[in-house]
Amino acid sequence: MLQPVRTKWRKAHKGRIHGTASRAIRINYGAFALKALTPDRVTGKQIEAARVALTRHMKRQGRVWTRIFPNIPVSKKPIEVRMGKGKGSPEYYACRVKPGRILFEVDGVSEQIAKEALYKASAKLPIKTKTIKRFA
User: For the segment 45-91, what is each residue's pLDDT rounded down to a tens digit?
Assistant: First the structure.
């Protein structure tokens, strides 16, 4: 499961995801990519599940780049605890994804295999996505 080695602060505010992405909006590495269409938090487990689905379908051919990383700690209070008494401890790490951000990039496989693999990866994510192709 992905998580940062160390963070500046142990707990983070919930925050809101406003606007569209300004970074990682163009394909930089591969020929095909998965682009986010809706805003949401994507957890480390979801990123890893999508990556595994991607590499399994590609039969470990080609190359995969992950353009997101879960660096936001998400805290949770234990079950059956009364209100108050402070904020819960960090439970997992997530990444805030804005619409327009590239999530995964793929290269070294045919267009059909890449599109099928990216479709399978998108099924593991909580956001709507679309497959895009690099214009060369």
Answer: 999 999 999 999 999 899 999 999 999 999 999 999 999 999 999 99
Count Cα neighbours of 30 within 13 Å in the Cβ-side half-sphere.
27
What's the chain's length in residues?
136
CA-CA-CA-CA dihedral for 65, 131, 121, 2, to nearest 10: 40
**Which residue(s) pair with 97 in the sheet?**
40
DSSP, collapsed to helix, strand or coil, labels residue 7 as coil
Long-range contacts of 109-113 (CB under 8 A, 24+ apart): 109/58, 109/61, 109/62, 111/32, 113/57, 113/58, 113/61
Distances (CA, A) of 136 to 4, 28, 81: 35, 12, 56
Structural domains for the chain = 32-78+86-133 (3.90.1170.10)
